[in-house]
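Reading a protein record of the kind used here takes only a little practice. To see the layout at work, look at the sequence and tokens printed below.
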Amino acid sequence: MPRIPVRRSGLYLGVVAEHAAAKNAGTPLTLDHDLDVLPGTGREFTVAALAEHVDDMAARLWAAGVRPGAHVALHKTSNFDIYILASGASRIGAVPVMLSPALPGESVAALLGRLKRPYLVTDTAKLDGSLADVPLDGLTERIVLAAGHRAGTVSLTDLAGAPRQKPVFNDPDRPALMTHTSGTTGLPKLVVHSARTLRGRFRPQNRLAGLIRKRETVAVHVSFVHSRMFLAMAVLLPRAFPVVLMEHGDPERTAELFARTRPGFLETHPNSFLEWEEIADDPRRPFANVKYFSSTFDAIHPGTMDRLLKASERRSPLFFQIYGQSECGPLVGRGYTRRNAHKANGRCLGYAMPGITKFRLTGRGGKRPSKANPGYIDVYTPGRAVTYYGEKERFEKQAIGDWWRGMDIGYRSRWGCLHLLDREVDHIPGVHSTLEVEDAVLAKLPELTELVLVPGPRQEPVPVVSTRKDLPLDPERWRAAAADYPQLAAPVQLPLSELPRTATMKVQRIELARRLQEQT
């Protein structure tokens, strides 16, 4: 397992805000929503107040019975208080287990069963909704409500004023955080991170932040349960960057928020950037002050980068494209400008981060990796996760010594750039790269907000499209845009809201294909 120096052995999430507050207590944080667990707190507070909230939640969780080493599963309505609660659990040496608010009840039940009676932090909306038919008494040690009351549960509201506890620093190689994979192929896997591997993820992200010479307001719209949220805060808060934390990503609310807060650095999922194209020309100029755009989790369409860069009024804005995986964190990346974004190859993910990450291509079926015969993308990083909880053998099948095989396939260009063509499980016979086709057609049809190729009943490539404001797709424009791909079946149009998605807004292709086949 790759190691980072002992002198920088661990990143302890429970003290991130406290250490940042000791340097710059007045750093402002802005939310676009109210905290469920701390009603009346307001939407604007300082990093010093954040540190106080984390300490408060740690005390309340301790009073609820949580102790060092305990698993604390967090599955509640999406809200920034998820970060506060997880940091509080970490502060007393417990292991936060982040379960996306978007997970269906049966998936939550399966993961709780795998954890073997964890504490569950949730809310009445979940108890009355997706968890209504889940036998939680037999799956959990105790149910803790973030707010409100319910028979048979403990409410954090009633534990206000609990005695504060000293922070606990576990061994850096013990589990410190669990997140889960995207679940695009079925039941998510629980990814175990240690304080040491979290530090390994911190290094490349901190290096990227070091490129920002001016103190910028940073707007972040990523899932509150994703490891990226915890690393983003660990990087931004010590640098005293004002942070805008977003729960809502619909274009209208986003335009209003950015017109008021004027962020200089913007990070979100590729699919959110795609949706936000429609406000690029909004008279409120929401992207006018953005100097840096950062797209994490997946490749982004060149046309989206080009349009957003042109919406910025800053001198020489940059668009960072970062490729990473749940098990490894950020791996490769590159930057684009107004001069080259429009002609970028959407399959080019960039280059490894010198001195931190590496990648290699491994042939499939005895063939040398190339564009025509893409190979497995293996990566090396000190941020690689420890294991899959309860599925050690499954993890070790992809752990090849110090390398990790994430089952993406691609090739290396003559200039050393990593090109991603597909996930192996998403490959469709007769299509060289589903992602390449999607890039090409999307570039010709700006009215689309999403385009996904999935296999039909006879393994034919079926384009599933969503349009802005759900307007009907123009068949003539579609035929012209897809003329280079005669193997495509007729498009199926669905509202964007009906596409099954992961916590990071990726379309669940296998689930989408299953639904289409059921309808057929």
About this structure: The longest helix spans residues 47-63.
